[in-house]
Please model this.
Amino acid sequence: MLKLIRIFAFLLIAILGGLWGLAWYLRAPGEAMGDAFLRQLAQFGGADMPAPSAGGVQLPQGIALGGAFSLQDLTGQRVTERAFAGKLGLIYFGFTYCPDVCPTELGLMASALDLLGPDSARVLPMLITIDPARDTPEALADYVSRFHPALIGLTGTDEEIATAARAFRVYYRKVHPPGASDYLMDHSSFIYLLGPDGKVRQLFRPNTPPETIAAAIKGQLRQL
Ligand code: NI
Model:
């Protein structure tokens, strides 16, 4: 019995070692070793993982983010995930009163769009507010125009925002910092790159360099 366990352990180590080697050999430029290994492991297990493009976080197999939402833009028009047809989407959830994180991330998004040059016309960037009480369509439009001319701001009822946030697993909560006159929103901060179907293809952690985001978008545009 002990011998059998030893053989099994040896085989397991050999397989994992082999997959690690394969992952090292096959990983995409810029892909983290851990990501490449997980991809190999998933493939070995029979799952079929999408080919990675440089940068961003690949979603683990079986996890789907994004999908249907219905919000409104400055003119009161309904905007849904169908707006991405034939394009890629770049989405960020935030709010205009955010003192630091949101402006930083929106700035990175804008820089990535600029790096794309003419290709940026094939990307629809959006800021979805998680603070609809203060972010009126007018306030949002004014705010987004400071970052990029193509960026659109979307708002909705509390319920509509909650539905959109749930689809993207976005966390947000009202907080009252001591001494502050008004509330802030605590929120998760990822930039989502969406396919034409409105499903997330890649997501970017806070402070991802715009070059990385632009490279990932270029990779996805090639598959469009
Ligand atoms: Ni913020």
Observations:
- The longest helix spans residues 2-26.
